[in-house]
Specification:
Strand order of the largest sheet: 2-1-5-6-7-4-3
Number of helices: 8
Number of strands: 7
Helix content: 25-40%
Largest sheet: 7 strands, antiparallel
Order of helices and strands: HHHEEEEHEEHEHHH
Length: 222
């Protein structure tokens, strides 16, 4: 597909001419395993963004995953596991891994400006021993994503500081509600934005309650 933008960068040489060389720390900060400090960061994180690739359509997908701090389990220096809790059942990321195991993770810890990046290979699994690891904090997941780690690196705080992400006084609001977005995206959906919001909220409450151990849940619009 030809680029829809002018002045598109098409070579490594063009790119290198635009940016200064990374500092010694930035250039050498990646390691190939989960060390003790990286494990501490993961154990403190309640939120990770998961990036996968849809090979069929040649596009990337990103999906947020959340749970109690430490809901992502580190098995050893080269492996970690992400549980798949109640969601919208599109399972885009898991499906993508069936044809392309490439995966990228970005861990966030509230109030911490730095984030932790991990790149590797993802493998959907129903290993009973792995799924049983999650039953004490949230319900036993249907499946999990096992990740074999290739690269681990700290990401500097500049982006989160520019965004003032953890500073409530900077939050402007004004974003559309989920109902407004869905009504705009789905013209065939014969519901008002307010009704969609109410339906979604009921679905969220049911699915989050179903994530409690030993519970079963039902799905909704999400």
């Amino acid at each position: 597909m030809p680029s829809p933008f002018d002045h598109t960068i098409t070579s490594e040489e063009q790119l290198a001419a635009l940016y200064r060389k990374p500092s010694t720390i930035a250039a050498g900060k990646a390691c190939d395993h989960i060390d003790e400090q990286s494990q501490r960061f993961i154990s403190a994180s309640p939120f990770v963004v998961v990036s996968t690739t849809n090979r069929q359509h040649s596009r990337g997908d990103v999906s947020p995953k959340g749970g109690p701090p430490g809901f992502v389990k580190v098995l050893d220096q080269k492996r970690l596991v992400i549980p798949d809790y109640n969601g919208n059942n599109r399972i885009d990321g898991i499906r993508n891994l069936l044809s392309d195991p490439s995966i990228g993770l970005l861990f966030l810890v509230p109030t911490n400006g730095e984030s932790l990046r991990i790149n590797g290979q993802g493998y959907p699994t129903t290993d009973p021993q792995i799924l049983d690891m999650f039953t004490d904090e949230v319900r036993r997941p249907t499946s999990a994503i096992g990740v074999h780690v290739d690269e681990v690196m700290l990401h500097c705080a500049k982006a989160l500081r520019r965004a003032r992400l953890w500073q409530p006084d900077s939050w402007s609001g004004g974003a559309p509600t989920a109902g407004e977005l869905l009504a705009s995206h789905m013209s065939s959906l014969d519901m008002s934005p307010a009704d969609i919001d109410d339906t979604l909220e009921a679905s969220y409450q049911a699915d989050l309650a179903a994530d409690a151990p030993e519970q079963a849940g039902t799905g909704g619009l999400s």
